[in-house]
Amino acid sequence: MSGRRTAAAAASLVLLASGLFIGSGVAQAMPAPPSGEPSLARTTATLPCTSYTQVLGVQNGYLKLRYLTNRKLETQLFSSTQLPGPVDSFTSARSTQLSDGVVWHYTAYAPGRRPYGVDVTYHDGDKQVQITPAGPAYLNAFPGRSVADSGSYYAYGINNAGQLVQYTRYRTQGGNLYFSSKRVVAKNQGGIRTLSWIGSTKRKGVALDLLVATTKSGALKHFSIPMKKPARTKITVLRKKGFSAYDEVSLTGCSTKKNEYLGLVLIDTRHNLARLFTVRNWVAPVARTVTNHGLVAPGADWTWHAVR
């Protein structure tokens, strides 16, 4: 994505380098369409480019990794052991390449608990991944829900007052981490259901963090946040309704010669289905640039909790 740092691009590169596309599927009954959202359920379109998506989820305490090419399920892996603690979301990953695989480095978040590090190791040919607790340790819990974390200085979440808030990550001399320096990004955001960090970029010399959110009322929102002056955030409502059924999200992306696309794998756990949407121009999208590309991996089990 033109040298910009994104969660979607990092995941795609890791997938290709690791050779994880070995092909498998899960055969189940076709899920019913989401009720109350007929316009989105019926509208499909051909993808403008090829997207590779890594969807991470938790089922009974075990980590599940699912790999998609566009809307097709290629393969999925499970962890051999349970995660060391509860998790609501993972940060975007750094990765270390091995001679025979890859290690992803995540930070796990859960409401009211200190974040903790998790290394996920995959070796070529294995059917499972290994979970290893990792540092550094956090001294305080993240003071909010629906965490969107760039893995850099700033993390974002919704506080008890319904505000979208930016927190700064600090490191002590001993190497431990903690969050402080609360700054309000936007008020009246208590209706946000899912919140995800898209990437970081610069526009006109201003460093920006970009977030995407769905709301309980069904809206799809894009946040362009000046890192140093978050109160000047630009909020774009991409769709006013149609997304209320989706309670989990995983991001991807792809590009053509003319456009760069944000991909959203939106999961409706109640109806056991997922759909792929794209948003044209992920840096500065405008309303009505959202396209529905249809069901993702029909017949797969989508009732688990996606964490990235």
Helix-strand blueprint:
Elements (H helix, E strand, L loop, with lengths): L4 E2 H12 L19 H5 L9 E8 L2 E8 L2 E11 L6 E2 L3 E5 L2 E9 L6 E8 L4 E7 L10 E5 L4 E5 L5 E8 L5 E10 L5 E12 L2 E10 L4 E7 L7 E6 L8 E8 L4 E9 L4 E8 L9 E6 L9 E2 L2
Parallel strand pairs: 4-9
Antiparallel strand pairs: 1-14, 2-3, 2-22, 3-4, 5-7, 6-7, 7-8, 8-9, 10-11, 11-12, 12-13, 14-15, 15-16, 16-17, 18-19, 19-20, 20-21
Any overview of this molecule?
This protein is mainly β. It has a single domain (5-300), classed as Tachylectin-2, Chain A (5 Propeller). Helices cover 6% and strands 51% of the residues. The chain has helices at 7-18, 38-42; strands at 5-6, 52-59, 62-69, 72-82, 89-90, 94-98, 101-109, 116-123, 128-134, 145-149, 154-158, 164-171, 177-186, 192-203, 206-215, 220-226, 234-239, 248-255, 260-268, 273-280, 290-295, 305-306. Strands 2, 3, 4, 5, 6, 7, 8, 9 and 22 form a 9-stranded mixed sheet that branches. A hairpin with a 2-residue loop joins strand 14 and strand 15. The longest helix is centred in the first third of the chain and has 12 residues, at 7-18. The model is unreliable at 7-42 (pLDDT under 50).
